[in-house]
Design brief:
106 residues; three-stranded parallel sheet; 25% helix
């Protein structure tokens, strides 16, 4: 995982240790590397809904592909612009995935 994905999965895992369920986790182009030791290398089992917007220019295999409920989609974007350019379609897709998971957004 990238740094952000590593932190997000670590938080989810710690919540799972206390039997707290995570309803939704959304990541943008989480690369296949883990700069932190002892962090989970897959999406923790207490995450009910997971979405991963991937850069279409990426040939990386993501660790989320090992998760049974993964919802991934490639977008025509670079790693550095995915998640930051609201015109790329990935932002609306991620918001839709969160909404479908029951996340209330304002």
């Amino acid at each position: 995982w990238s740094r952000g994905a590593s932190i997000a999965t670590q938080v989810a895992q710690r919540l799972g240790n206390d039997d707290i369920e995570v309803n939704f986790m959304g990541l943008y182009d989480a690369v296949d590397r883990n700069p932190f030791r002892d962090y989970p290398d897959t999406v923790p089992s207490n995450v009910r809904n997971f979405a991963h917007a991937r850069s279409g220019q990426s040939n990386r295999i993501s660790r989320s592909e090992r998760y049974g409920h993964a919802n991934e989609r490639n977008f025509p974007s670079s790693h550095s612009t995915i998640g930051t350019n609201p015109l790329g379609g990935h932002h609306n897709w991620m918001l839709n995935q969160a909404h479908r998971a029951g996340v209330r957004l304002k």
